[in-house]
UniProtKB/TrEMBL annotation:
DNA-binding protein that binds to both single- and double-stranded DNA. Binds preferentially to UV-damaged DNA. May be involved in DNA-metabolic processes. GO terms for molecular function: DNA binding. This is DNA damage-binding protein CMR1. GO terms for cellular component: nucleus. Belongs to the WD repeat DDB2/WDR76 family. It comes from Penicillium frequentans.
Length: 521
């Protein structure tokens, strides 16, 4: 008997359409109401089967953020009807409230606060224990490869240079504790400074979240008793952590004639003074409104005046303020359309200062004839890429670091900087670097920008500065571009990008992105 294939196919097609209609109705019901009972189980089972058939999803990337932005939450996931106006309004209110909490955290604090207010971790400070009673690289190296050492020293023919090289290479990594155990700040180190005391190596470090870390390197490691060795009782170094700013601490300084005060500048638009005897922090300067964003990038003070603070901003501004006057009596200039990353005053002629900016220029300025309306530099030099910092020393020499992988040294001493009259300018063809040193400055996103820092009062007639090395060292150079040392040691597992000299002693400190301290003495 012949089978009518068209009727059979028609029956199958009708059954398939009926199944599809039934599934659509079920899905519609599941979307409109909260699944319960067997429907909930069925939904989970279907979702599980569907997941198995799909390609395995790649793991989610976790983005590091300074303060996570609150996320909106689905009403359906909260067990509320999707079309509920009450649920929508509640979710919006929760989101805005969380967003406001995060905003308030970043607003600078204008009030004064004591050690108890800002203490985070470590040992609380006392004035007596803190201050004491005296108040040319040939190319970019391969990763982690030393490029300067004993062989280069032996080849040196200049007696003075050789003696200084031997002295600087004789510095040893502080061995009381392994560098991995000296976590001076909770987050990435952005700036560091030594206290000017020559009897106590006191190191300050500021991180990207506004913490100030303090280490007294004169401390001795306590002896572990024999009965405690079995318990592995090996104490960490005594550190102190204070929360003095709400955002990145970008710069800090201690004036040698005012050793009881540490001035710190921050991206929260404020400059604060920390009394090292009383451990009280007060705001020295801040915009009139906390809603004004004028992130401070660097501060400096003239050697002969402990009462006037100078600073630059990420908005290209420059300002001067006398702490003995009212807060609103600030003189300010707009020197650049782009970020000024660093600047310093000339120690021997404090009316002259140098700025380094994102627009690729290093410029010299004279405060004596600096117009408020249209300020003009007295000299400028353009690099191929942005200039990170411009550091003056007492001899009138300027060291800059740039993203074109060079360190440039400009010698203004022979050009008579100390005798320049008001209105003196230099043509571009005369204002050029006297020495260019090849140096890898490609720090990337996670390493703090490399900046040169001079020893302000060296005991030798040879001027010298230090700068971080991407191969996990700190390099020391002379003003003539000769490398004097490459400081390293066991236990350094990250780049000591923030490197600073003590103003007179041959002490060098380096800070890493993990908040660790490396100290050579």
């Amino acid at each position: 008997m012949a089978i009518d294939k068209s009727n059979a196919l028609s029956d199958i097609e009708r059954q398939r359409q009926a199944n599809i209609a039934e599934q659509k109705a079920l899905l519609k019901e599941l979307q409109l109401t909260q699944p319960t009972g067997k429907f909930a189980s069925a939904g989970k089972s279907a979702k599980s089967d569907s997941t198995k058939s799909k390609k395995r999803a790649a793991p989610k990337r976790v983005k590091e953020e300074e303060s996570p932005t609150p996320r909106r939450q689905s009403s359906r996931l909260q067990g509320l009807a999707a079309d509920s106006e009450v649920a929508k309004r509640k979710a919006e209110e929760q989101y805005e409230a969380a967003k406001e909490v995060e905003r308030v955290k970043k607003i600078r604090r204008t009030d004064s606060f004591t050690q108890n207010d800002m203490f985070v971790a470590g040992q609380k400070l006392s004035g007596h224990s803190l201050i004491g009673i005296d108040v040319v690289n040939k190319g970019v190296a391969e990763p982690y490869l030393r490029t300067f050492g004993d062989e280069e020293i032996e080849k040196t023919t200049d007696k003075d240079l050789k003696a200084l090289r031997e002295e600087m290479n004789g510095l040893k990594l502080w061995d009381k504790w392994d560098p991995q155990r000296i976590k001076i700040t909770p987050e990435r180190v952005y700036t560091m400074a030594f206290h000017p005391s020559e009897t106590k190596p006191l190191v300050f470090a500021g991180d990207k979240m506004g913490h100030l870390g303090i280490l007294d390197a004169s401390q001795e490691k306590p002896e572990v008793k024999q009965e405690d060795e079995e318990e592995d009782d090996d104490p960490d170094p005594v550190l102190t952590t204070l929360k003095i700013h709400t955002r990145t601490i970008s710069s800090m300084t201690v004036h040698p004639s005012k050793p009881t005060s540490l001035y710190t500048a921050s991206y929260d638009s404020s400059i604060r003074e920390l009394d090292l005897e009383k451990t009280i922090s007060v705001e020295t300067y801040g915009p009139e409104s906390t809603n004004i964003d004028e992130a401070v990038s660097a501060i400096d003070m003239a050697p002969d005046d402990p009462n006037v603070i100078y600073w630059t901003t990420l908005n290209g501004g420059f300002a001067r303020y006398d702490v003995r006057t009212r807060k609103n009596s600030v003189s300010s200039w707009q020197l650049s359309e782009k970020k000024i990353g660093g600047f310093t005053l000339c120690p021997s002629s404090s009316h002259i200062f140098a700025t380094a900016s994102l627009d690729r220029f290093m410029r010299l300025w004279d405060l004596r004839n600096l117009s408020f309306d249209e300020p003009e530099p007295i000299a400028e030099h353009e690099s191929r890429l942005s200039v990170s910092h411009a550091a003056f020393n007492a001899a009138g020499q300027i060291a800059t670091s740039s993203y074109d992988d060079t360190l440039k040294i400009y010698d203004m001493g022979p050009k008579g900087i100390s005798s320049w009259a008001k209105g003196h300018t230099m043509p571009d063809q005369e204002f050029r670097p006297d020495t260019v040193v090849r140096h890898n400055c490609q720090t990337g996103r996670w390493v703090t920008i490399l900046r040169p820092q001079w020893q302000l009062n060296p005991q030798s007639h040879i001027q010298k500065f230090c700068i971080g090395n991407m191969n996990r060292f700190v390099d020391v150079y002379s003003a003539g571009g000769d490398q004097l040392a490459q400081l390293g040691g066991d236990g350094i597992t990250a780049v000591p990008a923030v490197a600073v000299f003590h103003r007179s002693k041959n002490w060098v400190a380096g800070g890493t992105a993990s908040g660790k301290l490396c100290l050579w003495m």
